[in-house]
């Protein structure tokens, strides 16, 4: 696995006359690249660079901070992965907390007051399938050569079908550093009992509203709900289909450390 330490900016100096020039000089990128990042920075963290060495990442972050920005370093061991998450299969909203069971039958009780962040997003992945179709067309040459017995010629044509698979997700972070994940297509919605809705999307929306209501002290963010937000955070260095975990980890760290 490639070791990667990521530097992002979150806050832009309000009184800096030439923010673009300051950022370009601090990071060593072109003014055009700096300007593109600054157009979206402030609403959420925006990745500026990645480094194999942690020292280089921290040095760059220090330069950015000295220029009046607020930099975030996302260390390689802070990147979320499936191994560090508890993916929910069954769940119940109890009086004092959320009780969940993972696909591996691991059970966990999470106190509502312990939850400090609810992160909502959407994973989007394109699939491409190639299919070949045979086509028959009228052929004057075949007709003449065969005396009218063969009037057509056959050919093969390839088509590429592109489809996009979407799945909503919710990440819940608590004070014990548990990361509990609800995935729209993986949940056993019978857990809702009498509150079960007619469709999967309606059930997932209900879970979101209940989590927000019961975890009233938690921050809520849905920046990752569309590809535009994901792309702006990741910038040209990464893409949402392959590197969504980076965007998730960065958003979570930036919000929780504020």
Helices, strands, pairings?
Blueprint: E1 5-11, H1 19-27, H2 31-38, E2 46-51, H3 54-66, E3 70-74, E4 86-93, E5 97-102, E6 107-111, E7 115-138, H4 140-145, E8 152-174, E9 179-183, H5 200-214, E10 219-224, H6 227-234, H7 240-256
Parallel strand pairs: 4-9, 7-10
Antiparallel strand pairs: 1-2, 1-3, 4-5, 5-6, 7-8, 8-9
Give the name of the CATH architecture of the largest domain. Roll
Percent of sequence in beta strands? 35-45%
**Based on CA inertia axes, which overall geometry fits?**
flat
- List the total number of helices: 7
* Tally of individual domains: 3
CATH topology annotation of the largest domain: PH-domain like
Q: What is the CATH domain class of the largest domain?
A: Mainly Beta
Mean pLDDT: 87
> End-to-end span in angstroms?
30 Å
User: Any idea what the radius of gyration is?
Assistant: 25 Å
Low-confidence stretches: none
Taking the sheet with the most strands, its summary is:
7 strands, mixed
Structure description:
With 258 residues, the protein is an alpha+beta fold. It has 3 domains: 5-78, Ribosomal Protein L30, Chain: A (2-Layer Sandwich), CATH 3.30.1390; 82-125 and 165-256, PH-domain like; 127-162, no CATH class. The protein contains 7 helices and 10 strands. Helix 1 (19-27) runs antiparallel to helix 3 and helix 6 (227-234) crosses helix 7.
């Amino acid at each position: 696995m490639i070791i990667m330490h990521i530097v992002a900016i979150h806050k832009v100096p309000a009184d800096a006359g030439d923010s673009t020039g300051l950022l370009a000089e601090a990071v060593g990128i072109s003014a055009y690249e700096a300007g593109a990042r600054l157009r979206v920075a402030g609403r959420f963290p925006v990745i500026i660079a990645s480094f194999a060495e942690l020292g280089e990442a921290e040095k760059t972050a220090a330069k950015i901070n000295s220029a009046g920005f607020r930099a975030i370093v996302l260390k390689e061991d802070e990147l979320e992965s499936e191994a560090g998450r508890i993916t929910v299969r069954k769940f119940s909203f109890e009086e004092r907390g959320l009780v969940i069971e993972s696909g591996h039958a691991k059970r966990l009780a999470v106190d509502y007051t312990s939850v400090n962040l609810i992160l909502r997003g959407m994973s989007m992945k394109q699939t491409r399938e190639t299919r070949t179709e045979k086509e028959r067309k009228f052929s004057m040459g075949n007709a003449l050569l065969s005396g009218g017995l063969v009037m057509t010629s056959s050919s093969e044509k390839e088509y590429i079908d592109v489809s996009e698979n979407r799945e909503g997700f919710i990440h819940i972070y608590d004070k014990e550093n548990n990361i509990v994940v609800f995935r729209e297509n993986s949940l056993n919605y019978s857990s809702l009992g009498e509150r079960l809705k007619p469709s999967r999307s309606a059930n997932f929306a209900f879970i979101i509203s209940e989590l927000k209501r019961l975890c009233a002290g938690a921050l809520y963010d849905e920046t990752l709900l569309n590809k535009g937000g994901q792309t702006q955070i990741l910038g040209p260095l990464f893409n949402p289909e392959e590197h969504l975990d980076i965007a998730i980890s960065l958003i979570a760290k930036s919000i929780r450390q504020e």
